[in-house]
Amino acid sequence: MIIMGILARNYGGSLSAAYPPLIASWLRNCVVAILLTRGGMAITFKGKGLLVVLIILVPQFLEASTVAVVAQGLFQMPYSIAYCLGYCMATVAGSLVVPVMLSFLEKGIGKDHGVPSTLIACCTFENIAAIIFFGICKAVAFSQADAEITGEESDMAMSIGFLFVHNLAGLFAGLVAGLGAYFFKFINPKYQ
């Protein structure tokens, strides 16, 4: 799929021009939302909290660091921007793993030990962690660029603080939407 996307984008000509960038971005966001929602409905990982945290953070940090070092070596990027690239690439794994794990759940493969649901939970939370770390690296990169251009130090702590406020607001909105959806199970089933 990835190879065909690369070929279509570079050699497809009018094939890739069918979707304007705004619509393509909207479609990508919808696909990620569907994958995360399907994955979130299959999550059961009682007693595996530390395992989930380690599966999320260790491979993601190693992948982002490897991409950052290679990007800095090849393109002489500043490390803050190279880490932005690394965390962008680290989010791709979830979109590849979640559909496979959902098919494993349907077939019952690994269900006894909770392997598919644990990996789906890891992919879901890995995307959230990558978004947060990307935002931090972006705030650092913009702060460094602003300092180089204007010669004045910008408030990096304030930028990172606003990032956490935005993420907490998103968490709150998601909890409200989830609690609102919880009450759908009490609707009278005679209308189905």
Helix count, DSSP H or I runs of 4 or more residues: 7
- List unreliable stretches of 5+ residues: none
Helix/strand class: mainly alpha
Whole-number radius of gyration?
20 Å
Helix content: over 70%
Q: How much of the residues is beta strand, in percent?
A: under 5%
What sort of overall outline do the alpha carbons produce when their principal axes are compared?
Answer: globular
Molecular structure report:
By secondary structure, this protein is mainly α. It has a domain at 28-131. It has 7 helices and no strands. The longest helix has 36 residues, at 115-150. It is globular. The mean pLDDT is 80.
Keywords:
single chain; 192 residues; mainly alpha; 78% helix
Write the topology of this structure.
Blueprint: H1 2-11, H2 21-41, H3 49-75, H4 79-90, H5 92-107, H6 115-150, H7 156-182
Outline of this structure?
The protein contains 7 helices and no strands. It is mainly alpha-helical.
